[in-house]
Amino acid sequence: MLHRVTEDIKAALRQDPAARNWLEVSLTYPGLHAVWGYRIAHFLWNLKLKLIARIYSNWIRAATGIEIHPAAKIGRRFFIDHGMGVVIGATAVVGDDVMIYHGVTLGARTSEAKKRHPTIGNNVVIGAGAKVLGDINIGEGVRINANLVVTKSVPARTMVDSSEFFAI
Description:
alpha/beta, five-stranded parallel beta sheet, 4 helices
């Protein structure tokens, strides 16, 4: 667990040019606090302590403004910058080294009891206010610009700008 915490702090220092030092980042970054809270809630969820996981997750949401369902699967070195308003749904899968900004939603387009949320590949950046919706795949290395609504799968190493995809 301590190794993951260290990785998360290093990711914040690497991704955010305003980050000055370990102490500041660990004490004042709500995106990190939300991820750490999610990891505890996810552990509880996997122990079948689902009500406790949901209660704890709800407390983390109230404290940070970031809602991550404890059933979601999130990889290593995940960084949420200026996280207020981020929502990550129950069946979302997020790869390693992913960065998202405030107001991002990884949401569903149906209420059916099935895989409803996106799968995000490694090394993806999702801009502020973007909504990635449905059981779609976002490939490795994708960049999604701010305020876009993405409802179709995106191939690896692509820039998503409006409704167009551009290879990068």
